[in-house]
Amino acid sequence: MKKLDAYSISIGVLAVIDTYLTATLIPVPVWVTFIAWASFFILGGKVSGLRQSIASNLTGVVISSLTLLAIALLGSHPIVVAVCVGAGSAAMVQASKLPLLSAIPAIVWGFASTVGTTVATGKPITTIGLANPAIVAGVAMVLGGVFGYLSEIWGNALCGEGKPVASKTTAGGTTS
Question: Using one digit for the tens of pLDDT, what is the confidence trace for 120-133?
Fold first, then answer.
């Protein structure tokens, strides 16, 4: 089967499951899972893409949460909001100095998803418990990354590329 046809099937079916789960059992915004799903693929897929995507997305969630907390503490005057968002934006760029977080857009998607979840749920970042928008967005980002990974595995299997990845032995005899 051609790769795009295989991925159409795997992504289409898993999108149905994702949408149903987020509407019933796991109450997180489905659009955030789709953002994280796309983040997984844009970062190259595979385990490495999943790792980098989740780490970057969650870094954005944390930086956004700190930004929203600063706004909650300092007030919501437009200049305060602008300065806090500017500081958060600079923090995202600084975070990208770490190799695992080198994809700035993936950090931004976590940041924006947290702000969007805050607006969509009407819950402030200071909300205690599982309804906190940072927790909701973080769970959605991880879930979306996992759906991306599963859709890649299934899509590859459908087009005959579903071979397991073997460990590579280096010259020193260790595996990587």
Answer: 999 999 999 999 99
